[in-house]
Structure formats: C-alpha cells, structure tokens
C-alpha cells in the first residue's frame, strides 16, 4: 500500500513540476540561428558547440538535439558524467577535463574522446591501448594543457590525435597581444603534434577573424545568447527568457518599504507584484534594486532585495494581477552590466525548478 501511495505521490510531484510557477522560455530557432551565424564566421572551419554545464544551464540534451539536427557535429563537455548523458555514435564528443583513472571504465565504453592535458593522462591513455584522443596544449593561459616544448620533444608520438586544441585567455579583448602570441604558438606546434585537426577559438575567438578558426571552432556562450565581445553585438539573438508567476499584487503607499532590510522605499503610491522567482532559481541577488522585468513590452524595475524564492517588481498603473506572468530581461549583456555578474554565471546558475519550455 505504502509503495503504491509513494508512486502516486511521485507522479503527482512530476505533474506539479510541469506546472511550475516559473519557467524558462527557450527559443530553439534563435539557438540554431546563433550557431549558423558563428559557423558562417568560422569560414572554412567546422563549427562545434560547447555544451558543458548542462548546455550552460539551458539543458544539454535539448541543445545537442537541436544543434545536431542543424548539422553541428562536434560537441564539448567538461566531465564524463556529462559525456555519458549525451554520447551518440554519429557525433564527435570531447571531454575537456581529460581522463582520470576513475574515468577509464566509462571512457572505454562510450563514444567520446578525452582532451588529454597532462603527461600522466597521456600515459594512462597510451597504456590502456586506447584509440583516438584530443590533446590540449597550453599556449599562455596556464590553465589546462601540456607544454609546447613537450610536444616538440615527442610527447605525442604514436598517439592518435584527432584534435589539437588550445584555449584563448583574452579572446574578448580584440586588441590584446596575447591573442596573436597564442595563435602563433599553436600554429608552430600543430604539424609536430600529428593531429588531424587544430582548434583554438571560443565564441569571442570566432570574432577575432579567420586566422583564429583553424579547422574547428568551439563557441559556447554566444550560442546561448551571450555577447562576449563588441564584434558579436547585433549578430546574436537571446535564447533564454525567465518568466515567473505573480503570487501577490499589493498596494504600497508612498513611504512604504519593500523586502528584506527594507531597501526600497515607495516615492509615490505604488503597486507591487511579488513573483515566484529568487536567487535559488539563479535569479541573482545582485539584481536587487537594479534588475529589469517586463509586463508585456513595458519594462518595469525589480525593487528591494531579491530573496531566495521571491522577487518584487514595481507594476504601478499596469494591469497585472495574481496569476499573471512577468518576463525578465533576456538581454544577457544588459543584465550582466546591470548586476555586475558575468553572462556566463547568469546562464550556468539557472536553477532546477524552472519548467524548461522550448519553442
Ligand atoms: C567553455 C569553453 C569553450 C567555450 O567558450 P565560450 O567563451 O563560452 O564560447 C571553448 N573551449 C574550451 C576549452 C572551453 O572550456
């Protein structure tokens, strides 16, 4: 009896989640159009997609399906758990964090390649007699990657390297001299590596021009509506829009104050909508008193502190009532400037409570 009741309760919980009081509206056409724009800008190079961190918070399975249908063939994740959820025999999937001893059982089973970035990882892969891999070479960022000198001394000899990669430290600063130094360092080691393909550019790297594209580009943030550098502005469409339901509308007389620590004071008699959204959903506390919401096309300010599960919006003289839905700023560059939170963090912090609805 208890088991049956538990199953019924669980089914009800799943139905309730689909009826969540907040949701992410996800624009599949915009995602695909952003990828096509970046593919065009990549020239002769293939254009892949970074889908780590659950597709930057949007949902990696849904992202991969749409981009694969559009013709994208190369995908990048950080971990083997992410890879296991996405691997498909018709796609190239690279695991950016390489392969630890603990990853070997899964790494030998699924259709994904590690991006080897240390001599120990390379030895592990070689000793296991494994086939194709990718390799990360560090060209100046000092994050992940083997040293160019080690490649020159034969570190990769005998290894079947599919893609030799490096990663740009300052791609969003078009004038930074490190960009050209990294590009030249990768170029000079590419032939010695024996790699079939070479890859350097992330989203902002694609905007640096065809010299940076090599054989394969790896955009992430711009696919999802982020604009990491001025050259991409006007070319990238927003993909994700937060919407939240109004839980209560209240009238606050002039002088009344709102939210934790009463940080907002009504300058006039005001109407306030309190919505089902908070920092536990990834709507950051940094939007307190500076976020933007929309009632239809009318921009309205977020007022007071963003709480864990609730946010207040000034809807004075607008027709908004309990049960209505309010949208939040989907212009990531704008939201990032207002909150001083990076576009990457705004997306990857999007929470698990949203009903993710693709159109
Ligand atoms: C995350 C990541 C990317 C994608 O970077 P964006 O700035 O989001 O375009 C590309 N390459 C590597 C190695 C990464 O870690």
Automatic annotation (TrEMBL):
GO terms for molecular function: alanine racemase activity; pyridoxal phosphate binding. Signal peptide: none annotated. Its EC number is 5.1.1.1. It catalyses: L-alanine = D-alanine. Gene3D superfamilies: Alanine racemase (3.20.20.10), Lyase, Ornithine Decarboxylase, Chain A, domain 1 (2.40.37.10). SMART domains: Ala_racemase_C. Pathway: Amino-acid biosynthesis; D-alanine biosynthesis; D-alanine from L-alanine: step 1/1. The active site is at residues 52, 260. Coiled coil: none annotated. One of its GO terms (cellular component) is cytosol. It is an enzyme of class 5 (isomerase). Pfam families: Ala_racemase_C, Ala_racemase_N. One of its GO terms (biological process) is D-alanine biosynthetic process. Keywords: Isomerase, Pyridoxal phosphate. Residues 239-359 form the Alanine racemase C-terminal domain. The modification N6-(pyridoxal phosphate)lysine is found at residue 52. Substrate binds at residues 143, 308. Its cofactor is pyridoxal 5'-phosphate. Belongs to the alanine racemase family. PANTHER family: ALANINE RACEMASE (PTHR30511), ALANINE RACEMASE, CATABOLIC-RELATED (PTHR30511:SF0). Catalyzes the interconversion of L-alanine and D-alanine. May also act on other amino acids. This is Alanine racemase.
